[in-house]
Amino acid sequence: MVDRLSTLQIFQSGISTILDKQADLARTQQELATGKRIQSPSDDPSGAVKILDLEEDIRLVDQYQRNASLAEGQLAVEETTLSAVNNVLQRVRELTVQANNATQSPETRASIAVEVNARIEELVALANTRDGNDEYLFAGFQAQTQPFSRQGGTVTYSGDDGQRFLDIAASAQVAVRDSGSRVFLAVDAGNGSFDFAADPANTGTAVVAESSADGSFVRDDYTVTFSQATPADPVTYSVTDSSAAVVATGNYTPGDAISFNGARLVIEGTPEDGDSITLDSAPKQSIFDTLQGIADALENSAGTPSGSAAVNNALASGLNNLDQAIGNVLEVQSDVGVRLNRIESQQSINEDFNLQLQTTLSDVQDVDFAEAISKLNLQLVALQAAQQTYVTTQGLTLFNYL
């Protein structure tokens, strides 16, 4: 009985040895097949944890790269749209300069107004541009709602002031669009400090030729009123602020500057008694209102001297507002360009970081093929030796038993 038990133990030991050698060989073959040194966490617990951390970091970087590509695409669409908007504004400016000419008649100005109105429709269409995800570019957070609509001569905005951001790195995010309010609505008017407008009831021919403000400009709403008691008297002016306090007076001379509180106006033509020009301090005006004001002035122009002065004042103000609008669009477009450059730079950084992570991951988990092949050969020899030993031991045991 003792001999048989010892024999059984010998057989079991031999089989266990063979199975162990086969397991070692299979693990090495699996390493060579997958190229991975760690097949299960038990192979290297600390290495397995490090692999999980590295793989998570790689997934995050890949997500940042996808975000960057998405942001790049959306900003490219916005940049193209803003270029088209600028082209529309430049064309309207050309038309305004053309219309603000003494050779133009009410009829030719009315024909120019037709194209200006068409350009307003084109501008509204551009303001309602959608991106590749069928979302409105300039609606803020209300990306599924059409932001701009035109009824008659009024354009309304249904979006908000929101601005979407995307993370393109762990500590870096970029705005992927701009609200319609920033691009089209909250635009400085006039010369940036004030805008002017002639009283529609004026009967004279006074036209504002220049307007400017220096650093000492006192922000307020002002009114320049002209007086001439009798035709023999000189034309005088009086400037009052919003509280009706007089801030400047003098005799009016065509072409001479009227200066007060840091503001400067050069007025040409001959005003009538009671004519006035108002100054709106630090105004904001939508681009659509600017274009509509130009169209309205062209449509309603009259052939009288006072009518010509009225349209000249309206178009001069419109040109100032157009320049502000063009400057605002160019500023947003420049900002978009900066963001695109930033994305490109961050993408390069992400690629380098990803390469470092991949290299570190490879060092931790990838198998050394030369070492693994050498180990495989040794394991094959060891398995063959174990199998041969088992066969030999089994034969001797059977012989002794007999």
Task: Describe what you observe in this structure.
With 402 residues, the protein is of the alpha+beta class. It has 2 domains: 36-189 and 283-366, f41 fragment of flagellin, N-terminal domain; 194-282, no CATH class. Helix content is 55%, strand content 16%. The protein contains 7 helices and 14 strands. It has helices spanning 2-34, 45-99, 106-127, 180-185, 287-299, 305-365, 369-401; strands at residues 148-151, 154-157, 165-169, 172-175, 187-188, 194-198, 207-213, 222-227, 236-240, 246-251, 257-260, 263-268, 276-281, 284-285. Strand 11 and strand 12 form a beta hairpin. Helix 2 (45-99) packs antiparallel against helix 3. The longest helix is centred in the last third of the chain and has 61 residues, at 305-365. The protein starts with a helix and ends with a helix.
The domain count comes to 2
Identify low-pLDDT runs.
Answer: 1-5
Assign the CATH class of the largest domain.
Mainly Alpha
Sheet of most strands? 5 strands, antiparallel
The strand count comes to 14
As an assembly, this protein is single chain
Number of helices: 7
Strand content: 15-25%
What is the mean pLDDT?
Answer: 86
Spatially, the strands of the biggest sheet line up as 6-13-8-9-10
How are helices and strands ordered from N to C? HHHEEEEHEEEEEEEEEEHHH
CATH topology of the largest domain: f41 fragment of flagellin, N-terminal domain
InterPro entries: Flagell_FlgL, Flagellin, Flagellin_C, Flagellin_N
GO cellular component, one term: bacterial-type flagellum hook
Keywords: Bacterial flagellum, Cell projection, Cilium, Flagellum, Secreted
Protein name: Flagellar hook-associated protein 3
